Structure formats: structure tokens, C-alpha cells
Amino acid sequence: MTEEGALVFQSDDVDVEKASHSPTEPEEHFNTEGIAHQDALGPKPKRRHFFSPLDRSHADAVHEDAKTVEYTPEEDYKVKRKIDNTVLPLVICSFIFNQFDRTNIGNAHVIPEFNQNFDITDNDKWTLALSIFYVGYCLLEMPANILQRHIGANRFFFISLTVWGIASLSFVYSKGYGALLALRILVGIGEAGFYAGVIYYLSFWYRRHELALRISLCMTGTYPGAIGGLLAFGLTRAHTSLLTGWQFLFLIEAIPTMAMAFAILLFLPSFPFSASFLTKRERAIAQARVNRDHRPQSHGGMTGWQGLKAVIMDLNCWMFMLIYASFNVGAATISYFLPTLIKELGFTSINAQGLTVAPYAVGWFVVFFQAWHSDKTKDRGYHTMLSCCISFVGYIILATCANKSVGASYFALFLVVGGNYSLFPLVMSWAANCFSPTSKRGVGTAFIVSISNSVSIASPQIYFDPETQFRKGHGISAG
């Protein structure tokens, strides 16, 4: 792949493992342990304040050590597993809570008390409440990415989780349609930059052919959807003198988000060069793994504006944006409408919550297999086409079998969930693979998410025909 980033994803001709212990720099026999430059720096300085930028001298030292470090395949595997065991659990948990707080409104909507509390009297009010989430989300996506690069991932994610966690918690005691719209805007502002930021963050830790599988583990709405459906199935039955079932749903799902924010702040390293869970040699190895694969840059390089200009001039970026915007029409709505679609098949509100679990659970296997096989074969394009076909077939069945077959319609939801959600890790890892240098990658992923989600402002509006079980909406999603 060229520095400019070709749209086709393919591995380098040079074997990465072999290159990892055959450096070509003039200092071939110097600093093979990968600690000399880090030792020369002394202790890591403390930041002056919360928004202080990351220390560049330590970043440069690790990058210099990474140039000459020699390591075995066993050490490579050990470092990768330490990253998997430390970084991935924190990112996975934060994304689970992200999906809880973003989509629990869909589970609550099938409960009459929730609609009465927020004065949701018709489908138009409901779809507006869903659409307005994306206004702040889209406007702040790229500024949020620049902020993350400046202060580090742990501090940025801490701010993000705290803002949307407080907004989600506020649903419990809010009332009226105006309050609903205001809180949806605040949740969108809190989540701005989180999705693209996680992809950008993971690209600093993993090689290109390792990325899609990790994104599928960290960033798919399938298992959060399954867990959220189970929680909704149980919590919506709860009632006390102070809280009803839908309020318990928002309360129980918002509090862990607040706790997770502090866990991210304390334990998530911003970049490999600042990872305290790795030794100095392991930090050099972690940096060398990705440097020799796609040369990420934690500091320096393009400014945010230069990166934006490079992205806008790149045809690949606009093609990725078209792909993302197309499948996001369905993906942005299915999580909100899934309980409603199941209820429309003739099930009660409570049973509709429980029946969301199976499509999400099966969908997770589709997501995982597609991402795993994509990494294994080093292909993104054909896997993306297959996922689109799976989702397309599901929407066609939904559009043609409404009022005819409950079984066929329910089966179609499995296809739609699996097809839509498997596209996220495929397309975004493909984009991350193709954008270089790193400053362009960060702005590029944020640009794709931001501009494509502008379509998501209108996406819920395609489900304007509840009287025909949303046949036209399914047809538009299929298209």
C-alpha cells in the first residue's frame, strides 16, 4: 500500500515477522534491546493540567528505540496478547455502555408509560427525537478527533463517557417532549468523536491485518444489543413508588457508564509509548510492530487542517463515505426500531424486548466471522459486498412478507442485523488501512463518520409508514 493509501487492501510483500529482527538502519547493531533512548530520558514528566498535550520527547524516544529493536515471534505474540488483555477489555466495555445509552430509548419506546412521560403521541415525534441526536454528533466529530490527538485517548474518552452518561441518567427524572429533544442532543454531543476516535486509537496498537477482528470485538452493536434486550426484558417489569420500569432501564445502564469513565481515565494508555503495563522493551516492540506495517505517528506530521485538506482531496475518502452513508441508513435505524418491528409482528411490549436478543446474538457471529475471515484473507471489498447482500435480502423479505408470515419477517431481522453490523468493522478498518500518515487517518475516519452520519439525521424519517408495517422504509433501506 502506498503512503497516499490505495483503495485495495493487501499485505506488504515483506514478511513483517522477518523484518522485525532485520533492521536496515545504519545503527544495525546498536540498541537492539530497544531501551537506550527511553533510558536516556529519565522519569516521565507529569502533565501541568488536564488538557496539557502529551509529552513529545517520550514519544520520540520510543519511536527511535522501535527502529532498531530486535525481537522474536514469541515476543511479538506476548506483546500483542498483553495489549489484547489490557486495552481491548476497556474499549469493549466503554462501547457496550455507549450502545446501551444510545439505543435504550428504542427499548423504552415500546412501553406506553415512557411515551406518555415524554409526550410522544405519534410516529413523527418519535422519529424527530431519533434524528436530532445526530446534529451535535456530526458537527463535533472532527473537532473531537483533534482534541483526542491533543490530550490523549484516555482523557478524551473520559470526557465523552461522562457527558453522555450524565445525559442518559437525566432521562430518569425528566419530563416532556422538549426535555427529550434536549437530552438526545446532549447524548449526541457526548458521543461525538467516540466511534471514529476508537478506530483511530486501535490503529496505533494493531497491524492492518489484525484490525478488523479487534474492531468487531470492540465496536459492534450486536452483543450490546443482546445484553440490552435482556436487561430491558427484566428491568421494564420493575416498579416502585418512585420509579417505573423504563426509568430503571435508564438508571441501571447510565451508572456503569460513569464508573467506566474513571476506569478509562486511570487505566487506558493514550498510545503505546505511554503504556505503563508494558516494559520499556515491550513498548519499543509494540511500536515497532505497527511502525513496520503502516508507520503511525503519535506526534508531528500534518496539522488538523492539513489532514482535512488531504482527506477532502482523496477520492478514496469520498468512496468510503458513500459506502458508509449507504449502509448507515439501515444501521442507524435498526437498533432503534427493532423492538418496535418485533412488537408489530403481534408480540407484547415485554416479549418484544426479549425477542430482540436472538437476532443480535446470531448477528454477532456474522460480525465476528466476517471480520476474522477478512483479516485472514487480507480482503475488505468482497466481504463488504457479501454483508451488503445479506442485509439487502433481509430488507426485501421484510418489505414483502409484512402481514403474511411472522416467521419469515422475524428471520429477516437476523439477516438485517448481521449484515448491517458486520459492515462497520469491515468498512472502517478498510478506511484506516488506506489513510496515511496517521494525522490523515484520524481526520479521515472522523470525516467519514461525520459526513455520513449527516444522512443519519434523515434516516429515521424513512420509517414514516407504521400503518403498513414500515414496508416503504424497508424498501428504502434495501435500496
TrEMBL record:
<keyword id="KW-0812">Transmembrane</keyword>
<feature type="transmembrane region" description="Helical">
    <location>
        <begin position="179"/>
        <end position="203"/>
    </location>
</feature>
<dbReference type="InterPro" id="IPR036259">
    <property type="entry name" value="MFS_trans_sf"/>
</dbReference>
<dbReference type="InterPro" id="IPR020846">
    <property type="entry name" value="MFS_dom"/>
</dbReference>
<feature type="domain" description="Major facilitator superfamily (MFS) profile">
    <location>
        <begin position="87"/>
        <end position="479"/>
    </location>
</feature>
<keyword id="KW-1133">Transmembrane helix</keyword>
<feature type="compositionally biased region" description="Basic and acidic residues">
    <location>
        <begin position="16"/>
        <end position="31"/>
    </location>
</feature>
<dbReference type="Pfam" id="PF07690">
    <property type="entry name" value="MFS_1"/>
</dbReference>
<keyword id="KW-0472">Membrane</keyword>
<protein>
    <recommendedName>
        <fullName>Major facilitator superfamily (MFS) profile domain-containing protein</fullName>
    </recommendedName>
</protein>
<keyword id="KW-0813">Transport</keyword>
<feature type="region of interest" description="Disordered">
    <location>
        <begin position="1"/>
        <end position="42"/>
    </location>
</feature>
<dbReference type="GO" id="GO:0016020">
    <property type="term" value="C:membrane"/>
</dbReference>
<feature type="transmembrane region" description="Helical">
    <location>
        <begin position="381"/>
        <end position="398"/>
    </location>
</feature>
<feature type="transmembrane region" description="Helical">
    <location>
        <begin position="318"/>
        <end position="338"/>
    </location>
</feature>
<dbReference type="GO" id="GO:0022857">
    <property type="term" value="F:transmembrane transporter activity"/>
</dbReference>
<feature type="transmembrane region" description="Helical">
    <location>
        <begin position="350"/>
        <end position="369"/>
    </location>
</feature>
<dbReference type="InterPro" id="IPR011701">
    <property type="entry name" value="MFS"/>
</dbReference>
<feature type="transmembrane region" description="Helical">
    <location>
        <begin position="156"/>
        <end position="173"/>
    </location>
</feature>
<feature type="transmembrane region" description="Helical">
    <location>
        <begin position="215"/>
        <end position="236"/>
    </location>
</feature>
<feature type="transmembrane region" description="Helical">
    <location>
        <begin position="248"/>
        <end position="271"/>
    </location>
</feature>
<feature type="transmembrane region" description="Helical">
    <location>
        <begin position="410"/>
        <end position="432"/>
    </location>
</feature>
